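ok so I'm stuck.
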Amino acid sequence: MYLKSGNMKPTKMYNTELVLQAACAAQRFNGAYVKEDETKYHKPNHQPTKWIVTKASNKSLVYFLVTGNLPSYGHHPQRYDFLENCNIKITMDDKCLAEDIKLHFQGKLFEALGGKLNEYVENIWKTLDTEEVPAYGVGLLCSTPSAYERDAKKEIIEDTVLENCANEYIGSVNDKIEGSVKLINVFYSKNYESFIYTGIYENKFLVNFWNGKELGETNEVIDIKAKIKRLGLSKFYKGAWETSLNYVKKIDDKKELTKEEAFGAIVEGLNILSGDKK
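replied:
not stuck anymore, here's the structure
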């Protein structure tokens, strides 16, 4: 369908529900939100080297599913070849997921009325409330399943925090601590060139810390030594009491030696080498 606006060129419109279903199919097919086509040089046996698309962008897949048309071969030959041979279709699971996504964002009505939604989520909410969308709306809906997955992950973490963490802190600022932490969220920040960790310390306390090293993965339990940096309410988990740590060091399974023990071990080794002790 085309939408006319004065003397301007008619705007192509697309069915919102179908676009969202196609976006779910594209997310499933790619396993993630792929913004641009992924390409590489390929050299078949005894054939000239050619440039191919190895993974089409979610938007390319969505337009293919919604319109049923391949892109112009003259403008996008590599994308044309990929889409012509890819086996993608909208399944019943995709349709069910699309309905869940719509209900999820409709549930943010009260946040929207209170002005608590960020612009991106608010645009998703408004777009899903329409029957048809123009091209820019298609682009927004292509990333919506990924936004839904992030929301779902955050809600799982919030539930974990509320169920397990006490409204108290580990200790006071500058206290040294040692114990186990179950990592409930781990991600790498390119801006700060550091891993940012959220975890539950000793099955009771919400903690967060940064580290340049990869100390563990989500759901992994690690032993640490650290120092309490700051105490306060969490900005991300509904005001839960949160202890911020610094000088975090992961403790290996092997027992660490004190300076005296290490020196003694060195002396004993030297004695053995010199023949004083067998």
